[in-house]
Design a protein that fits this description.
By secondary structure, the protein is an all-alpha fold. The protein has helices at residues 3-13, 16-31, 37-59, 62-67, 72-87, 93-103, 110-115, 117-126, 137-141, 144-187. The protein folds into 3 domains: 1-59, no CATH class; 61-135, Transferase(Phosphotransferase) domain 1 (Transferase(Phosphotransferase), domain 1, Orthogonal Bundle); 143-188. It is elongated, with a radius of gyration of 26 Å. Residues 1-26 form the signal peptide.
Length: 188
């Protein structure tokens, strides 16, 4: 078996926590000794595969992991993970991976809690380990958090439209002035 495949199998066989804590070190150690650029590209591809596996694990609901069953409420769990990732800011890939590992235990970074208190509460509901206790799609659509997102989006859209209108008015004014100058120039 080529050394690169052994290295990949080594990485895959690690527990998720080992992958998180040692991914950069292990991949650098395992893959750095191969001189060709082909090996380097393969190492990057292997690392991407490990990252994809991590993401699949992060987004999988407890019932998907434990029972291999995916139900509609499993998607609600995944929505909670996505919402968390969209709202939380991470200092590094390592911090991101650590936060995602904690997320499966419903543990949020302190900064996320302090900056997004209502959203954190909503995420906790979406991430509930018991599927029947997660909100329904109707509950989500009627939630205060989602309505607030819609209000913010509407305000930003309105602001953007106002900026576009102002820019259009300035452009029309400029074109009008240019047209007047052309007529004055043509009449001379």
């Amino acid at each position: 078996m080529p050394p690169l495949q052994v290295s990949f199998l080594f990485l895959v066989s690690l527990s998720w926590m080992d992958v998180f804590t040692g991914l950069s070190n292990a991949s650098h150690t395992q893959f750095s000794n191969f001189g060709s650029s082909h090996s380097s590209n393969s190492a990057q591809h292997q690392s991407v595969s490990v990252n994809e596996q991590l993401e699949e694990k992060w987004y999988a609901s407890p019932e998907e992991i434990n029972e291999g069953v995916c139900i509609i409420l499993s998607n609600i769990y995944s929505l909670g993970v996505l919402l968390f990732e969209l709202l939380c800011q991470f200092e590094s890939e390592r911090a991101h991976a650590a936060a995602m590992l904690d997320l499966c235990h419903r543990i949020f970074p302190p900064t996320f809690l302090s900056e997004n208190l209502k959203e954190a509460g909503f995420c906790l509901r979406l991430l509930h380990p018991e599927p029947s206790l997660r909100p329904t799609t109707r509950d989500i659509l009627q939630s205060e958090v989602l309505n607030r997102f819609q209000e913010v989006f509407a305000e930003e859209l309105s602001s953007s439209i106002n900026r576009d209108d102002t820019e259009s008015e300035l452009l029309l004014h400029f074109l009008g002035l240019s047209k007047e100058k052309k007529h004055k120039h043509a009449s001379k």
